[in-house]
Design a protein that fits this description.
homodimer, about 120 residues, mainly alpha, Arc Repressor Mutant, subunit A, elongated, DNA-binding
DNA sequence: TCTTTATTTCAACAGTTCTTGAATAGTTGA
DNA sequence: TCAACTATTCAAGAACTGTTGAAATAAAGA
C-alpha cells in the first residue's frame, strides 16, 4: 500500500454513503451482496449506488463478480486492511497516546460489526 | 468517535497535502512544530498551509497553540487515534483476512515513522 | 425472439473544495 | 510607536464531486 493508493482509499471512504456501503459489506465477508439488495438495504437509487460502488471498486476497497443477473460486491480485504494498516504505519507510529486512542475506540460498544451481519433494511447508524 | 466525526477526519486525511502534514507532525509528538517550519518543510505557500492546517484542526486531528510569534501545531492523539480506531472497529470487524492485511502493511519497511522525527526539508514520501 | 429483471453509463446541473495573490491581524524588540 | 516577523483571512476563479433522470447493456425465462 503506497501513499497514492492509501489516498484513493481514504478519499473513497470519506463519504457517508460509501462508508455505509463498506460497513454493510464487511460483515458479509467473501460472500458479498448483490447490488440490488444493497440498494434496498441502504435505500439508494440505482445510478447513485452504482456510482459509489464503482468508486469503492476503483479505490481497491471492493471487488465485483457477476453471478447470473446479479453483480455481487464484496469487500477486498487487502485493500481495506491495507488502508487501515497504512494509517497505523504512517500516522500512528507506535506513539503510545495515539495507540491508546485507537484502543479506546476499539472497545466502542456501538460497533455494528460485533453483532454480526447487517440484515437488509436495517443498515442505519 | 461517532460516524460524523470519523467522516470529517477521513475527509480531512484524504488529501495529499494534509496527509503529508499529519505524517510530518506525528513524529514530533506533543512538541509539535511552528507553522513557518511546516511551510518550509513541505514547500507550501502561507495561505495554502493555513487553509489545510485549519481543515485538519476543524476535523479534530490537530491542535494549535500560540507561543510568542509562532503558532505551534501538533497532532491530537485522540482525534487521530479515534479515527483509526473507528476504522478498526467498524470496517475491520475482527475479520481475519482484513486484520491480516492490516498487519502486512504494519510491517512495511518504508514507514517514515520508525526512523524517528522527520527533519525539515526532508519530508517527502 | 420477446419480455422482464438487474445493473451500469451518460449528460446536465448544483454545490463544494482547492489554489492563488492581496490584504489584515497579532507579537516582539528597538 | 514603529518596523519586522509570523500567520491568517478574504475574494475570485478553476477544478472536482455528487445527484438526478433518461437511456443503454446484460442475462434469464417464456
Amino acid at each position: 500500500m503506497d501513499r497514492s493508493k492509501a489516498l484513493a482509499a481514504l478519499s473513497a471512504l470519506a463519504h457517508e454513503t460509501r462508508l455505509d456501503l463498506v460497513r454493510l459489506l464487511v460483515p458479509q465477508g467473501a460472500a458479498g451482496m448483490p447490488a440490488g439488495q444493497i440498494a434496498q438495504a441502504l435505500g439508494l437509487a440505482g445510478p447513485r449506488l452504482s456510482f459509489h460502488l464503482s468508486a469503492l471498486e476503483q479505490a481497491g476497497l471492493l471487488t465485483a463478480r457477476r453471478v447470473a443477473r446479479n453483480v455481487i460486491y464484496s469487500v477486498d480485504p487487502a485493500g481495506l486492511g491495507g488502508t487501515i494498516g497504512y494509517l497505523m504505519n504512517h500516522c500512528c507510529c507506535q506513539d503510545p497516546t495515539i495507540l491508546a486512542a485507537c484502543g479506546d475506540s476499539h472497545h466502542d460498544p456501538s460497533s455494528a460489526c460485533r453483532q454480526g451481519a447487517v440484515a437488509p433494511g436495517t443498515a442505519k447508524t
